[in-house]
Design goal:
The protein is an alpha+beta fold and 330 residues long. The protein has a single domain, classed as tRNA-splicing ligase RtcB (Alpha-Beta Complex), CATH 3.90.1860. Helix content is 35%, strand content 25%. The protein is built from 9 helices and 15 strands. The strands form 5 sheets. A 5-stranded mixed beta sheet has the order 1-2-3-11-10, covered by helices on one side. A hairpin with a 2-residue loop joins strand 10 and strand 11. Helix 5 runs antiparallel to helix 8 and helix 7 runs antiparallel to helix 8. The chain is globular.
Length: 330
């Protein structure tokens, strides 16, 4: 099968191009595309789409399995004004309900909703029915649930924004948290066959024992990420209700992962920070703190491998930005 490689990246630097070319050079890659906002990643560039045959690559999915976006519409007349008028109170209320930052959230176990607990238990039971690793299962049945409903760090965020009609929205950018990290590390080491220098392109054959295990836990991780963002939404809505002392009606608009590997028509589509964009498919591309997020629908462009930009990018790391800019400039 001839290899197809399309590059749509703007301001593409040499390191990102080299990283993408290295991924594309793998014999099991049949198609690849680089999105407009692509930039350097750990092993595969953020904003890359890589379609493979017979093999799946844990390091291309990376540590944050199922990172993605969720958007809900807040219903009710005058809700936008109420949110704006009570923004400080809302911020404080939500911050108390949604754990943020790195690591396990031991205290978070007390904050998980009944619905969240129920759906998490169902996910674990589903995972147990497929090929699985006992060590990983022990983690899922133990400490893993502590991560449910926590935001994380980096460019993950909760945003309350308003569209051109002044409708209120809540948008969440997060993934599978420490659960995805632990799983990814385990199977990246397994695919590499070593405990050091495993963050490279080491594929797993789909029908191998380890490959089957990874596909099963990958499915768990992707569903956990969806569940995690919905748990964050529920906690955020609860915080909003407390702040404005009013019951909130809301409607889910989209909940999608943009960091995954999914089977489709006999192939595996690895999207490393690329928004799925089949024709009519809803998505969210996060912008920045000034412009907010963009609610989008896919065109189904085959050249882009039915994908679009990741969003939420930045030219400076947080550490570099602190050195380069003052708060007054910000």
């Amino acid at each position: 099968m001839p290899k197809v490689k399309n590059i749509f990246a703007l301001n593409l630097d040499d390191n990102t191009r080299e990283q993408f070319d290295h991924c594309c050079a793998q014999p099991f890659v049949v198609k690849a595309a680089l999105m407009p906002d692509a930039h350097l990643g750990y092993v595969a560039p953020i904003g890359s789409v890589l379609i493979t045959k017979d093999y799946i690559v844990p390091s291309w999915v990376g540590f944050d399995i199922g990172c993605g976006m969720t958007a809900v519409h807040i219903k009710g007349k005058g809700m936008a004004e109420k949110i704006k008028e009570n923004s400080d109170t809302i911020f404080s209320s939500v911050q108390k309900k949604v754990p943020m930052g790195k690591g396990e959230m031991q205290e978070n176990a007390q904050k998980i909703t009944e619905q969240g607990r129920k759906e998490y238990k169902e996910l674990v039971e589903k995972y147990k029915k497929g090929p699985h690793n006992k060590q990983v299962l022990q983690f899922l049945e133990g400490k893993a649930i502590r991560h449910l409903g926590s935001l994380g760090s980096g460019n993950h965020f909760i945003e309350m924004g308003f569209d051109e009609k002044n409708n209120a929205w809540v948008v969440v950018h997060s993934g599978s948290r420490g659960v995805g990290y632990k799983v990814a590390e385990h199977y990246m080491k397994a695919s590499a066959g070593k405990d050091k220098e495993f963050e490279k392109t080491y594929p797993l054959k789909e029908d191998s024992e380890t490959g089957k295990e990874y596909l099963n836990i990958l499915d768990f991780g992707l569903e956990f990420a969806l569940l995690n963002r919905m748990e964050i939404i529920r906690k955020t809505i609860a915080g909003l209700e407390e702040a404005i002392v009013e019951k909130i009606e809301w409607e889910l608009w989209v909940n999608k992962n943009h960091n995954h590997a999914v089977p489709e028509n006999g192939f595996y589509i690895h999207r490393k920070g690329a928004t799925p964009a089949k024709k009519g498919e809803r998505g969210v591309i996060p912008g920045n703190m000034r412009d907010g997020c963009f609610l989008v629908e896919g065109f189904g462009n085959r050249d882009f491998l039915e994908s679009s930009s990741h969003g939420a990018g930045r030219k400076y790391s947080r550490t570099d930005a602190q050195k380069e800019f003052t708060m007054e400039q910000f």
